[in-house]
Amino acid sequence: MSPTNPLPQVAGTAHVAPALRRKRLGALDGVLLLAAIATYCFADLYLALATSVLIMIIFALSLDLVQGYCGIETLGHAAFFGSGAYAAGLFALHVSPDPLLGLVAGAVVAAGVGLITGIVVLRVSGLTQIMLTLTCATLLYEAGNVAKSITMGDDGLTGYTIAPLLGRFSFDIYGHTAYLYALAVLLVVYLFTQFLVNSPFGLAVQGIRENATRMSLLGVRVGLRRLMLYTLAAALAGVAGALSAQVNNIVALDTLSFTLSANVLVMLALGGTGRLYGAALGAIVFMVLSDRIAAIDPTNWLAALGVLLIVVVRFAPDGLIGLVDRFAARVAPARHRARRTSVADAGGLANATTTDKEVTP
Q: What cellular component GO annotations does this protein have (predicted)?
């Protein structure tokens, strides 16, 4: 029996290694995680704001999947956030106060809304698609306003309680449990999205974004994959909405509003589309600056955010994550040159030492 040729195995390993490197967490992940831990340890007075930031990061990640990775334009992403929020609130009010079950309920209902609306929205493109997403969100907003016997309309859905997390950790008034709960959910969502965008499905969707016709000619079912991603993103937005309903103990009609859809678009524009880091950075900057600027000037804080957005779009069209990438690209060559210089110096010293030994009698 002839020995097996190892070359195909080596080639296969060479193809697998880049995929594994793409899924590996980087230094920026560690920085963000350390910042989250430091917030919990040293910023007790801002845990409510920090929890809202974590929820908005999940929401921005879901929009980034739709717009940044699949190229679907939307102005009605709040439809899924609000659907998940109302589903979690009604689930806690009428079925069970368990937070994890409520989280699942919010994700399932939002995914259903995404599936139904996606069948209509994804048949068109461009301005028509944008207007259809806005129409779907507006219809849900009006339905929530009219069905006051269910949603309580403008007064907001209240009167429900959330049971202790895992039966042990109660939601205290200081927000410790809510923050850790939101952080844990965010970590799970982030790892899932990181895996998704680097999976064969995610890479195919990115190919559809670049050239849907070519991917269709390659045998990829473009419409089905776009609908699947749209539904998954809706489920993640529903998770964010369910978290909001559980930690705030109220579901306002604003969770379905155009304002929320516009805000998350601004977050993504600030951070950078098509990058998961961009969604996180954009949500952090938008939420923190909104809170601080509104505290300084409650009247004109939106104008200040508008100026910030103009500056970012003008000088960093690819968002804040683009600035981070350019800074890292500048630092890396300098570090590489320093390393090469040190290696050359070490080599020269070794040669000099060898020469000295050779001439020593």
A: plasma membrane
